[in-house]
Structure formats: C-alpha cells, structure tokens
Amino acid sequence: MNSGEVVNNNIKYRIEFSKTDRMVYIGHLDLMKLFHRTFKKADIPIGYSWGFNPHQLTIFAVPLALGVSSVGEVLDIQLTEKMDCDEIKDRLNQSLPDGISVLQVIELEFSAKSCASAVSYADYCVTLDDKYQDIQNVVNEIMVAKEINIERTVKKKTKTVNIRPLIKSIAVDNEGGKTEIYTNIATGSQGNLKIDVLLEYIYEKLGAEFRFEKTDILRCTLYTDNKGELLPLCLEEEFM
User: What does the alpha-carbon distance between residue 33 and residue 92 come to, in Å, rounded to a whole number?
Assistant: First the structure.
C-alpha cells in the first residue's frame, strides 16, 4: 500500500424517515442542513469527505417537492464507527424537530448502490379537492393508452414528452367524501415523473382546474427495480 493511499473503513447505513405537518414547507437544501446539524447534535460519528472542503457523507434518494408529505423518505450515511441501528434511530429522533421522524435504520454492505442511484419508482396517495364521478374512466383511458404526450417547458425550451412509460399503476377510491388516487410512478435518475404533472393531466381530462394547494399529496414508499421486481429501498435483506 502506498503511503498516500486512503483506506475507507466507514460503515454505511440507510435511514427511512417521514416528513409531515409543518415540515412539508421546508425545501430540500434546508432539509439537508437540518440533518447535518442533527448528526452533530445527536453525537452520531458521521464520516466526512477528503479534501480542502470536507462535507458529511450523506446522500438523499430523491428530493421531495415542497408541500408534499412523505412517510418513506430515504437517506444514506457513512459512519466512522459501527453503531446499533436502533441507537442511531433513537438518538436522531430525540434531536429532530416535530414533523421529521426516523422510521427505521438498516446497515448496508459498503458495495451496495446508493439510494440515489438505486431508486426507480415511488408510491403516492393523493386526496383530490372534491369527489369526481368520472375519475375511473379517466384512469382507464390512461392505463390503456400507448402514449400520453404533454408539453413541458424547461429553461425556456418547450418539448413534447411521452409520460405513459413512467406510469406503472393507478387505482381509485371513490367511496369517501373526496376522491383518492393511489399511483406508482417512475422516480429517479433513470426516469422521473413529477406527481403534479400527472395530476395536471388528470384534472385536464376531468375538465377541472388543478390546484396544488387544495390537493393532499403523500409519498409513501420508494422502490428499486430488481430485474422487473420492485423492492422497497429499505428492505434490509436486499442490501445486506
């Protein structure tokens, strides 16, 4: 071994946490800063990168849109010392503010893919602003369609995008006072469909106006695609 070679003896952990209540209104950068401060406050031996500007070794799976709640966010960290997973969970929960709660912590093989590169799909539960009797017909049309082309403007450039391959499933519950939609859509670097884009399309087909602030959106579980089988990112057996 060369004298200048760096040996990384860190241990990888994956954290699943919820983001609800008033915390849905803090952005992704503020969420990162919150966790960075919390690791220090909770005396978690977090690892740091090498170089002139070292930073904590943390990776979030995928940013959550402002105003959207979640019970399945995922964060990977590296620690310089091995810790019991329950102790990590307890220490963090004692230091985190209301609205952010660690649900589970699992240890990873160091060679495991990061959550950011592994995530491919997400479940959403959406409560619409009213009850829509025609919603099932709209969903049926979406699921049998071969293409759903929409126009998106990014950096002042407009292009046509086919979002149909990014929609894995949609189910409807119209039994209560408002319509609920359960959907599984592509989420991550390999393909990503924003939930508000799908909802805008559904509302357009309903002949109604989509109002984000009147819609209750919950992201539930993040998945990795294992040869066509979707597995939760926090399924311990998959990453050990």
Answer: 14
Report the candidate in 82, 81, 65 with the shortest Cα–Cα distance to residue 73. Answer: 65
Q: Closest Cα to residue 185, out of 197, 168, 171?
A: 168
Q: Are strands 11-19 and 69-79 parallel, antiparallel or unpaired?
A: antiparallel
Rounded to the nearest 10 degrees, what angle do helices 135-144 and 195-206 cross at?
A: 120
Question: Which pLDDT tens digit goes with each residue over 141-170?
Answer: 999 999 999 988 777 788 899 999 999 999
**What's this model's pTM, rounded to 2 decimal places?**
0.91
The residue among 91, 53, 59 whose CA lies nearest residue 77 is 59
Say if CB 138 and CB 205 are below 8 A apart: yes
Number of Cβ within a 10 Å radius of residue 222: 25
Joined together, the tokens standing for residue 141 give 């049309």
147: its two tokens: 């293409």
DSSP 74-116: EEEEEESS---HHHHHHHHHHHSPTTEEEEEEEEE-TTSPPHH
235: pLDDT strictly greater than 80: no
Half-sphere exposure (Cβ direction) of 233: Cα atoms closer than 13 Å: 34
Sign for the pseudo-dihedral over CA of 45, 92, 100, 107: positive
For 151-180, give the DSSP string.
EEEETTEEEEEE-GGGEEEEEEE-SSSS-E
Only one residue has tokens 């990168």, namely: 49
